[in-house]
Design brief:
By secondary structure, the protein is of the alpha+beta class. The strands form 5 sheets. Strands 2-4-15-10-17-8-5-6 form an 8-stranded mixed β-sheet. Strands 1-14-11-16 form a 4-stranded mixed β-sheet, with no helix packed on it. The longest helix is centred in the middle third of the chain and has 24 residues.
Length: about 230
């Protein structure tokens, strides 16, 4: 873990207010049009065991399956890899139900179905590129949510404000290379989420990346679950 890294805190009413915001409201929390608040992330629940699944995809990269999640947390697979579906489905359903229940408890209203992706990736192929899951600024849209759980290590998440291109309607929020370099080098304060925990953060404008994994066995795999959903400002 980088020396500048902090740990997320458990989700609270204070944190959940960010997840209930519109994109405009989140942008208004910043100190100017060329800065974007980074809320960091929050843990949902306590330990959440993510299974260590043997990597079995014939292609390079990750074995991936996407599930459609309804309002009750039921997960419907969209792919054809039956073995992977069987291995991922119990954890996917358990995670979806925990996340949906926690968000409802904190007044976060989801907009339609959610999508949960499960993946199994060889450890040395885990990507660590900083990115936004949603960079498009539409003022009236909800910020959306991303929830992630993984074995080996969770994601790394920015939690201090970023320099960005001016935030303008219907345009993507842009980052310059210096900001990305500062994130990578630890000049921007970040959180490193733990393995086997569920962490949640806004989908819009929240910089994060995969972890740098140390001390794992050669050929180790990282199993990761990512739930994404739109939200309605409230």
């Amino acid at each position: 873990m980088n020396k500048a890294d902090l740990w997320p805190a458990p989700i609270s009413s204070e944190y959940a207010r960010y997840l209930r915001m519109s994109k405009a409201q989140l942008a208004d929390c910043s100190h100017g049009a060329d800065e974007l608040l980074q809320t960091g992330a929050a843990y949902i629940g306590d330990e959440f065991v993510v299974p260590n699944i043997e990597y079995s995809d014939e292609n390079d990269g990750a074995a991936i399956e996407t599930f459609v999640v309804d309002a009750t947390g039921e997960c419907t697979a969209t792919g054809q890899n039956d073995r992977l579906i069987v291995e991922l489905l119990p954890t996917a359903k358990r995670m979806a139900q925990l996340v949906l229940a926690s968000l409802a408890e904190h007044g976060v209203v989801l907009d339609g179905d959610s999508f949960l992706t499960g993946s199994v990736t060889v450890e040395d192929q885990v990507t660590t590129t900083p990115h936004f899951d949603d960079e498009l600024f539409v003022a009236s849209d909800g910020v959306g949510i991303v929830a992630i759980a993984a074995n080996l290590a969770g994601p790394r998440i920015a939690c201090s404000a970023l320099r960005v291109s001016p935030v303008r309607e219907s345009l993507p929020v842009g980052l310059d290379q210096q900001t990305i370099d500062d994130f990578d080098s630890g000049l921007i304060t970040t959180q490193q989420s733990a393995a086997n925990r569920i962490v949640v953060f806004p989908q819009f404008g929240q910089l994060h990346c995969g972890p740098t994994i140390e001390h794992s066995m050669p050929g180790s795999t990282r199993t990761m679950f990512v739930l994404r959903a739109g939200t309605r400002p409230s």
